[in-house]
From TrEMBL:
Subcellular compartments: Cell membrane
Lineage, top ranks: Bacteria, Pseudomonadati, Pseudomonadota, Gammaproteobacteria, Lysobacterales
Protein name per UniProt: ABC transporter ATP-binding protein
Keyword vocabulary terms for this entry: ATP-binding, Cell membrane, Membrane, Nucleotide-binding, Transmembrane, Transmembrane helix
Gene: ybjZ_2
Naturally occurring in which organism (per UniProt): Dyella acidisoli
Pfam families: FtsX, MacB_PCD
Length: 437
């Protein structure tokens, strides 16, 4: 270690160039890796492994006419018509189950102020299934769901805007000129990615649902979805897309909580059986179809992580390899300048192993210093990413795991770039070097 420290100081310009080259390569790689790490993180740690998206094809329409109401080819967000969703809810085959649909709504408080907010029409199990933290009050019950009660849970931010205080239980909010009584106040809730409503957004720093209401009450208030996966042929396709028919169009995503692999297998069989019961689809040339997808399978199927993020990781990784090759060359030139010194050490009894370890330590120190310099450069790169408005760049952060990964990568790079130069200098013939000295 002492020899390695002395070696760093002997050729300061070469050392500084090697450290800077390593730092730039590490910073480029860690900037892109940190963003990929945040985008691919588990949206609900401890919960998502038990959540599944259930889907059954029950649209009575031929495949070629299976389009949304505005005539654009349908998206495939695996949503259900309201009667099918309610039939699955009534069967109650999962531990918990709920439907979800993101809607836009004009919300007005008692002070007359109004805001356009993102509203989630959902079922009574959503709060407990998806881990929404209640700050005050309660969620609604299954009975209130069935009664289509005009009640709501709002987050503390909206409560503050509407009423000037987060303590809003018992207050009344007007949603599209319909009165909804607030029964609960939640903490702001925004899992990333927004896996249960990808049709609304995938990643969004400021986008979040600020109000939750029973889906039946939302329909009664005229808050049906403005987007759909497809509609029955009986639906008037000439209508604009803002007139989605909740009974004949697919607009509700259905999520179920299952505890064990046996529960998953049993629920998949239940879905298959339900799909086979849709005998009316035969006249439209459609075979029974059903799917049960885990959160990770769903995110992979929807290709949630943008392709350019993965491409940038590969490009930055290639740039790091190029930097490593250059640093290896610098270290080799630096080490071979000491051939005479190494030859004398070998003649005095130093083993090849000792010589190689000394130079490996020195290479490791160069890359560790490069990692230390790469830390602020990585933070700068992430700050520059956050300045770009691409819908997901606001998630560019360096967490504890990626901070540790930065220095682990720096030490790994040090071992790799130092291996060949260290081996080369350890092979110096002591006799020739002493003679030349």
């Amino acid at each position: 270690m002492e020899l390695a420290l002395r070696g760093l100081r002997r050729y300061p310009k070469t050392t500084a160039l090697a450290v800077l080259t390593v730092a730039i390569g590490l910073a480029a790689s860690m900037t892109t890796l940190a963003l990929l790490h945040m985008l691919s993180a588990d949206p609900l740690p401890g919960r998502s492994q038990h959540l599944y998206l259930a889907w059954v094809d029950a649209v009575e329409a031929k495949s070629q006419t299976f389009t949304s109401l505005d005539g654009v080819t349908t998206y495939d967000y695996k949503r259900l018509k309201m009667p099918d969703a309610e039939a699955l809810l009534a069967a109650h085959k999962g531990t918990l189950q709920t439907v979800v649909a993101d809607l836009d709504a004009r919300v007005e408080g008692s002070n007359g102020q109004h805001f356009n907010e993102q509203l989630l029409a959902t079922g009574s199990d959503f709060i407990s299934m998806f881990g929404v933290a209640l700050r005050d009050g309660r969620s609604w019950t299954v009975a209130e769901d069935a009664a289509r009660a005009p009640i709501a849970v709002i987050d503390s931010g909206l409560a503050q805007k509407l009423f000037g205080t987060p303590r809003a239980v018992g207050r009344v909010v007007q949603i599209k000129n319909h009165a909804f009584r607030v029964i609960g106040v939640s903490q702001p809730y925004s899992p990333q990615p927004h896996f249960y409503g990808l049709n609304a957004w995938a990643f969004g720093g400021d986008s979040q649902e600020s109000i939750f209401v029973p889906y039946g009450a939302a329909v009664d208030a005229g808050l049906a979805s403005s987007s759909t996966d497809g509609c029955d042929d009986a639906t008037d396709k000439g209508k604009r897309f803002i007139a989605v028919d909740p009974l004949h169009c697919e607009w509700l995503a259905y999520w179920v909580q299952l505890g064990t692999p046996q529960d998953v297998a049993a629920y998949r069989s239940f879905l298959d059986h339900y799909a086979q019961q849709q005998t009316s689809l035969g006249s439209y040339g459609k075979k029974p179809q059903s799917q049960l997808l885990s959160v990770q399978q769903w995110l992979t199927l929807q290709n949630v992580i943008p392709d350019n993020v993965r491409l940038n990781v590969w490009l930055a990784g290639s740039f790091l390899v190029l930097c490593m090759v250059n640093v290896a060359g610098l270290l080799a030139a630096k080490f071979m300048r000491r051939s005479v010194e190494v030859g004398i050490r070998r003649a005095l009894g130093a083993s090849r192993r000792a010589v190689m370890l000394h130079h490996l330590f020195e290479a490791g120190m160069v890359c560790f210093l490069g990692g230390a310099l790469a830390w602020p450069l990585t933070l700068l790169g992430l700050a520059l990413l956050r300045m770009q408005d691409q819908g997901f760049t606001d998630l560019a952060r360096l967490d504890v795991a990626m901070f540790a990964a930065l220095f682990a990568l720096a030490l790994g790079v040090g071992a790799l770039v130092g291996l060949l130069p260290s081996w080369r200098v350890s092979m110096v013939q002591p006799g020739l070097q002493v003679k030349s000295a």
